[in-house]
## 1
Amino acid sequence: MDVERKSGRSFVRARAVLVAGSLGLLLAVGGCGASGDSMDSGAKAADGKAAPREGFSDEDGGAAASAAPEEQADGKAAGKKAAPKPGGTHVIRTATLSVEVKSVPKAVAAARGAAEGAGGLVASENTERLDDTYETSHLVLRVPQERFQEVLRELAGSGKLLSRTSNAKDVTDQVVDVESRISTQRASVARVRELMDQAEKISDVVALEGELSSRQSDLESLLAQQASLKDRTSLATITLDLTPPDAPGDDGSKDEDPGFLDALGGGWDAFVTMLRWIAVAFGAAFPFLLTAALAVVVWRVLRKRKAARGAAPVVTTAPAGKDGASAP
């Protein structure tokens, strides 16, 4: 019986030691895993804190550190809103065409129809008549970006193409920058209005009103820039010059080889021009000549009167003789 009791006690002790060892092993494994997780989370947190500082200077870092938490949150929100969408490019397209057509009025009507049919408009039109036969036209057309090339080909095929230039300017960065600044400025205006609602002193209200007016002015300027960019990127601009064939000044062969009649006509024009200028000069000098002539006439009349007064007869007496009689 004692032997059995001793063997039972030893078995229980061995079992207790085995259980204790197993528990210790499990605790050690769990501690290692927890320490590994904490190290990973610490590394991730360090990376997350260090990542935003990349690409910024020390000066920018100091300014960001001194900024209020609200403005930093607004700046992050604005940056997220201003992130460009994949493939969302903004391009300003312009083109200039010079086309020679048989009938300028018909070509103008066709160009207007092409622009309006594509969903655009005629921004300006200037038609000038050179003489009774020839006239030219200058048009500025605004068409949607997606129909730009189509309208351009249609206008170029309306007659004889003399010249063509086309330009494209990518302003995606400018559009994104303006949108980001608008978001930030709107948040700034909202904060100033909240401060105005909480202000109790009149001096604070006056100062906040001045700040609000300044920020609203900046916001309106940014909105105007955004509207201008939207108009130029949504509608392309086409400048079209229409001229008829054999218009005056288009062909210089006649001027290079003048004939006898051309020389005679040129000489007659010069002679008439000279007579015209002489007549103009005489008309301009006529009042002065008339005044000078009247002055000369008056001077001569006065001179004659003076000469007549100086030529009057003088009475003289002869010396007396010895007998007191005057000599014969």
## 2
Amino acid sequence: MPRSPLPPREGISATSLRAPGGKATHDKNHLPVPETIGAWLEDEFPEATDDARRSLLTTGDMRDEAGAPVVWGDPVVPGGFYFFHRPVPAEERIPFEISVVFEDEELLVVDKPHFLASTPNGRFVRECVVTRARTDFAQPDLVAIHRLDRVTAGLLILSKRPETRGRYQRLFQDRNVAKTYRALAPTPPAGMEFPLVKESRLVKPRGARQVLEVEGEPNAFSRIGLLGERTPTIGEYVLEPLTGRTHQLRVHMNSLGLPILGDPVYPVDLAPDPYDFSSPLQLLAASIGFDDPLTGRERFFESGLRLGESI
């Protein structure tokens, strides 16, 4: 997909939409290409009002791949990409702030608080690290190069420059990043020895929030150590994900009979109100290290956050 000719608006990226037709598309069951932009938008958004569709061209500032403005009667480019800003409603603010850990010409490293999403997702478009950082720091090209669950706190790395972003993203894709987490969970039963490596096969059913452990060849590996006791019943653990499956550390700790404190999904999916901040998940992305793909120098970042200060 070509890069959007539209800069983010209020920190929110433009939406891309591909027209039917063209060599590389499986275009909506091979429907014929509409003659005009207006006819295409009527097909694409049949439940929208005519005013709402036309607003994509005006308020939404629709552009073609070359950045030229689009009008209602323009012919459709078969298989062409078009870009526009969707209307984004206001969102109740998540009352926690990001803090800067490190910044240079390439990267912005921040501490993400609990309950704030990393990237636009579902109901949280404005209230996420990427949107906030773009507006707060006036850096519209910021993009997160990895993910952190909304309920997990800690280090999140954002790329500043599209020209070098792919090289940093590949570090995570190729698992050339050393990540450690801290967690608070029940103290282990007598006889459980640490450190240990937990391995299993994880599968996330479509539409479900819980990730399941199933029979089969393991695809998720976690190294788990016990740092000590916070209280007679609460232990502090260091976790190293050797693979990057969704909810991997949370599932593995729960499988060991040591569910992370404050987990809203394991062992029971409580389906909490996302604006209930009373019980943060006691999981922290504590450190990240890698060899910089541009300079070859070692990079190492540590979170300034701490778990369970009141425990």
## 3
Amino acid sequence: MKVVSFLPAATKMIYDMGLQDYLYGVTFECPKEAADQPKVVRCILEGKNYSSIEIDRIFSASKAQGKSLYWVDDALLESIAPDVVFTQDICEVCNIDTVCTETAVMKLSKQPLLVPLSPNNLQDVFECAITIARALGKEEVAFAYLARLQQKTDQILDQLRENRSPLKRVMLMEWIEPIYNCGHWIPFQIAAAGGVDMLSNPAGDSIVTPWEKIVKYNPEVLVIAPCGFDQKRSLEEMSLLTAKAGWETLEAVKNNQVYIADFDMFTQPSIGTLIEGIEALACMFHPRIFKADGNVAKKFINYTQSVQSLQSV
């Protein structure tokens, strides 16, 4: 069986479950494990270093014109002749959507099974792992994989209960300019880590959120994780936030509880990386109870400490 993944999250879960031998093609932004795989999907933003504002404008213009940011290497896809193609229909700016995928697949001599993965909440992402494994005839692998991950979230919940930890009032930003709140599965991650984001949109799209509303909400913890940005990239644009009126008055700022986090723990819906996100959030929300180690420790930084480190250099 030959599989092509048009979705980085699906690619990540395929590798996490040890099913990569079925994989014959991926997108340009799939995780490092798939670096040697043929790139079937490309993007007009690939290799460019646009600002948040520029990316938003490009996407808005593309959407208004009915165009996609992504394109498929039709010749490569035809040569692979896949049996299964995984795609998504959640965000047309983050990844190629099902409509574009269907258009590319219709041209193929051999028609593959098209499997859309479109989770809305955290439980849906768990189900996606089962859907992937089932399509490959390896459903039992998914159940073992998910059981291991469930143990991690259970341990976090047990620790929160044991310490009677109150919920922290938090906000997670999915974009800096304009500011977007968080949606879909991220509010559920926040809840699992011992927090509540009253500005979020659980199981729905993230939306533009006025700065005045954020100042009034006054989060205790602020997590900045723009979609597609790692810590270094986000730090380059922090001045867009710190220059805003009322920044210094935020409780999160006054108490040094502003964090910069890698996007792939949140807006990259592989269940393994989302569980890492829950572990990281628990460390941000309740640092007296949870300490980051291993890979999780590398995935986020305290903004104040990072600024102080740069100033001391």
## 4
Amino acid sequence: MTNRPPTLSVIVPCYNIESYVPETVTSLVNNERDDFEFIFVEDRSTKDKTYEALLTLTKRLKNSRVIRHEENGGLATARNTGIDASEGRYLTFLDGDDWLAPGYLADLVDAIERFDVDFVRTDHVQVTGIERAVHRAPEGRRHTPLDPRSSILPVDDTTMVDYPYAWAGVYHRRLLDKGMLRFHDGLKTAEDRPWIWDLHRRADSYAVASLRGVFYRRGVASSLTQIGDVRQLDFFRSFDLVLAELAEDPEVGRLRKKALRNYCVVIAHQLLSRGRFERSIAARLKQMAAEALGRMSEDELEEALVGMGEERVYMLRRIRGGMKGVAA
């Protein structure tokens, strides 16, 4: 690498993913350029030798380094460690158990330079076992600069704030200078939610590119989405952060409705799948759900639940109590 800062920093948080490291690193070898840097953050794995595997395998990858946390901090903190260590003009993320198509990173850099925007979002490929499915970013306007705010609403449709995956895009370093791009330290799950809301509220420009080079592995046993423990309940803190940060927004009246609907959708999902939790955690989930729903006014909750589906509406009504007039 020359003395000039790298064009792109790739931040890869890793935790208990030893068996996936060879494929992840190989995909980055197939994407490397002299002006790219690769930062692996090993978040104190407890069940395998992820750290040792990274030290060995990254010898193949130019301009790479492995940073090891002294104690486990969670995905949000691991990403922040990588951000703090990065020097690239642009930043992107890759989870340690996922991989990239050859040449994808060059295409990503080309897109953000061509559109000259604060960030670019992409599609991705979801991998479940041997099955693969393309998931499109929920914005029909492609390959043109957009106002990020214009992709938050409508309330009752899937929009870009419902597509929070940090690894599905690339971000200009100037966002850091404006106080964006970092994650809320310590969030164990749903860490992307306040992050994506902040980007779409406060950044000046973005674009959506029809790139499908990220392969996102679903159903990984070590993934937090597969584990029914107390860390899952951090989604309450995550959405409370979204609502708190919206309070100062000039369009809070319109945007809060969208955030509340998102919150209710996630609460309902967690309640309907609470069988994976231990009894004490399931009880805590119900208590926190009742408290969160109780902080919403009657009118706000009625509007949030309209059209959400009979099963979810019934569940949320029952947890909160009342709400008999809400249409499913």
